[in-house]
Amino acid sequence: MAASTSAAAAVSFLLPYYPHRALRRQRHRPSLLRAASTAAPPSPDLSIQLSPPASPPLVLSPARDRAEDLQAESRAMTRAAAATVYSPELLASRYGSQPFQVALRAAEVLSKLGAFGLTLLLDQQRGESESSTKRRARAVELRTILTKLGPTFVKIGQGLSTRPDLCPTEYLEELSELQDSLPTFPDEDAFACIERELGLPLDSMYSVMSPSPIAAASLGQVYKARLKNSGQLVAVKVQRPSIEDAIGRDFYLLRGIGFLINKYVDIITTDAVALIDEFACRVFQELNYVQEGQNARRFKKLYADKQDILVPDIFWDYTSAKVLTMEWIEGVKLNQQAAIEGQGLKVLDLVNIGIQCSLRQLLEYGYFHADPHPGNILATPEGKLAFLDFGMMSETPEDARVAIIGHVVHMVNRDYEAMARDYYALDFLKPEVDVSPIVPALKNFFDDALDSTVSELNFKTIVDGLGAVLYQYPFNVPAYYALILRSLTVLEGLALYADPNFKVLAASYPYFAKRLLTDPNPYLRDALIELLFKDGRFRWNRLENLLVQGRQDREFVAKDALQPVLKLLLGPDGEGLRVLVVKEAVRVTEAITFGTLIDSYNAAPEFLKPLISNGNPAGPFKISDVEREQMMELRGRVLRIWGLLRSSDSFDPSLLQPIVQVLQEPEARVFGSRVAGGVTQRLAARLLQQLLRIPPTPVPGSS
Fold it and tell me: What is each CA distance from 119 to 106, 123, 586, in whole angstroms?
């Protein structure tokens, strides 16, 4: 949560600030003055007023305020009009004529990483690889190497810093410093960049600014400042000098390696060059801070109604391609467990918020944050999750969103043929590829993996298993999927900091259950029917489990549950489903009727029971113990499911209104007649069976 004005005033003056007029007088050696620190809000004589206080801002109507904001955004876009857009041709034109410089860079990378790999091998041969002291030293060495190699390799280190299942603790701690504790570049360069990009002197825009960055990341560094015109506390991100050239050269080198992989490494079937191009495109977009601001605005709009998600606002008049000014947010990084718990918060609660938010990003809105490392996600004192750094975003195609949910359903059902067909919708396979050879490979992996339960699987297990399958067959992993993997593995890595036994899939169940029960998408509706019906019988235990899980999602609405199935049931394409439902409705009605009669008999006084049962010690009903147990179990499940719906926070009598409305349709009357006829016939047969005392035909059990 952004600090309030009064709280921000108290906090902001605890930091040193830079007198901007001094910057203009001494461009090369600025005089860094410091404000006096005090626990209470400073009085005017303790703070450095770099310019006269601004008049109170004019209060605008929402419409006018929105119009001016759009105009400010348009001006920012004009300032960023010359920002570079990535293309392979761009790299070829810039670096194709520089073979010597590219060769030097390749030698630098290979020599540094090769030497580090050799030291690890020597440590292992000497028996020192398990020493905590030695690992700490090597972790520091790796962090230093990645930092010296530049932004491209820093991003690789950032990804490793969130994977406790891949790296020892010492490496995690050291590599986590790559998130926002990188070496800074000179403040003079940063301040000069701000003035050059925005076309104004600093003291006309900011009343105070920290003389040194409060954080330094791979692409830029951040200063804390206060806007002169409004007094708003803001974060000002400034891009590193010459970073575009450094990143471009690295990607030119990586594309060359990608061509070699495509040509000579048969085990990798994915187009390595295409993946590198996709990643390069994302990174070059990160270099355009106006684009990042627009990403943040879009993300904020999507989550405007989510009380536990916080997205900073953007100040367009102070933003350009290389300068980004956004709302200041107080918070703690998610991997700082002690600091979070010191605020009375729980890391796992926050991670669960992040997972639910990511699922909605990936599978509902289709627009997701592709770089959620701990430096980009903060826990606020109020328990909210604040997302920062919107440079790397991506989109999930609509067909892929529902296919992913269906894929999970098929995995739960162990329907490997359907899982294989899902890869068409996921764009993993071309339509002409035969999936039949893939089915045994999926079966071999998941039959072993699912021996316990799906909820006990972690995300890495599934990724590793699917990866082994992908390498054997002509899969082409789309770029969006690679970014989804990055996003989810990072979140799982954060959770594993707090709980080594945390399972992302178990935490994701409520969302999947809610979508299956309420989403009208035909693909998901069919997936739900596949989940609930098997071999012509309704699986009430699956419905009960879906409702138990779905109710844990705060956006679950009871009256929306099963509405898509009900509409299909009474629609022109629902005849096959109607046949199944009629049979199940007869079974349920019989179970409830006989169950109620059995309960009534058991509750009767003992002296009346012989009269009711006509002296039969087995009771008044001629049914086997197995059949009795099956009917009582079925009735119990149905009543529990109704109880789950009634106990939902969103339950009210209007729950039945959509059903009543549908039942008024002519098709519903026909369907109702079929159900009534089936129930009548079944009860008549039961009555005749009881009168004639005909031994019952065993009924196969079904739950």
Answer: 20, 6, 73
- Helix, strand, or coil (residue 41): coil
Q: Which residues are CB-neighbours of 526 under 8 A, at least 6 positions away?
A: none
Picking from 171-175, 215-219, 316-320, 618-622, which range would have the lowest pLDDT averaged per residue?
Answer: 618-622
Residues 370-414 pLDDT 10s: 777 777 889 999 999 999 889 888 888 888 888 888 888 788 778
Tell me the DSSP string of 130-188. Answer: T-HHHHHHHHHHHHHHHHHH-HHHHHHHHHHTT-TTTS-HHHHHHHGGGTTBPPP--HH
Burial 658-693 (b: 16+ CB within 10 A, else e): eeeebeeeeebeebeebbeebbeebeeebeebeeee
Mean pLDDT of all residues in 137-163: 84
Query: Pick the residue with more confidence: 555 or 148?
Result: 148
Residue 608: burial class (beta carbons within 10 Å; 0-12, 13-18, 19+): exposed
**pTM, whole model, 2 decimals?**
0.69
Least confident of 95-99, 199-203, 227-231, 503-507: 503-507
- The length of the chain in residues reads 703
Q: Are 578 and 569 in contact (CB under 8 A)?
A: yes
Please report the pLDDT score of residue 402 as a whole number: 84
Tell the burial category of 322 from Cβ atoms under 10 Å away from its Cβ (0-12, 13-18, 19+).
Answer: buried
Helix spans in 501-562 (H)? 504-518, 522-532, 540-550
Q: Which one, of 528, 524, 517, lies nearest residue 553 by Cα?
A: 517
> DSSP secondary-structure letter at 450?
T
378 forms beta bridges with 333, 386
Instruction: At 232, list the tokens.
Output: 């708003």
CA distances from 191 to 31, 314, 322, 574 (A): 13, 19, 12, 67
| DSSP state letters, 281-319 | HHHHHHT-HHHHHHHHHHHHHHTTT-TTEE---B-GGG-
The SS3 assignment for 326 reads strand
Which pLDDT does position 180 carry in this prediction?
A: 62
- In whole angstroms, how far apart are CA 153 and each of 25, 179, 184, 270, 304? 38, 12, 16, 22, 35
Cα dist. 436→269, 429, 469 in Å? 19, 12, 13
Q: Cα 626 vs. chain centroid, distance in angstroms?
A: 46
Q: Write out the catalytic residue numbers.
A: 371
Q: State the sign of the Cα–Cα–Cα–Cα dihedral 616, 620, 623, 624.
A: negative
pLDDT at 515: 86
Model pLDDT for residues 623-661, shown as the tens digit of each residue: 777 777 777 888 887 788 777 766 655 545 554 555 555
Q: Give the model's confidence band at 8: pLDDT under 50 very low, under 70 low, under 90 confident, else very high.
A: very low
10 Å CB burial of residue 530 (0-12, 13-18, 19+) is: middle
pLDDT, mean over the chain: 76
State how far the Cα of 483 lies from the Cα of 468, in Å rounded to an integer.
Answer: 19
Helix 272-286 vs helix 151-160: crossing angle, to nearest 10: 100
Q: How many CB atoms lie within 10 A of CB 203?
A: 20
**Quick one: which H or E segment has residue 670?**
helix 666-692
DSSP 521-537: -HHHHHHHHHHHEETTE
Whole-number pLDDT of residue 624: 72
The predicted model gives 11-27 an average pLDDT of 39
Distance CA 655, CA 272 (A): 52
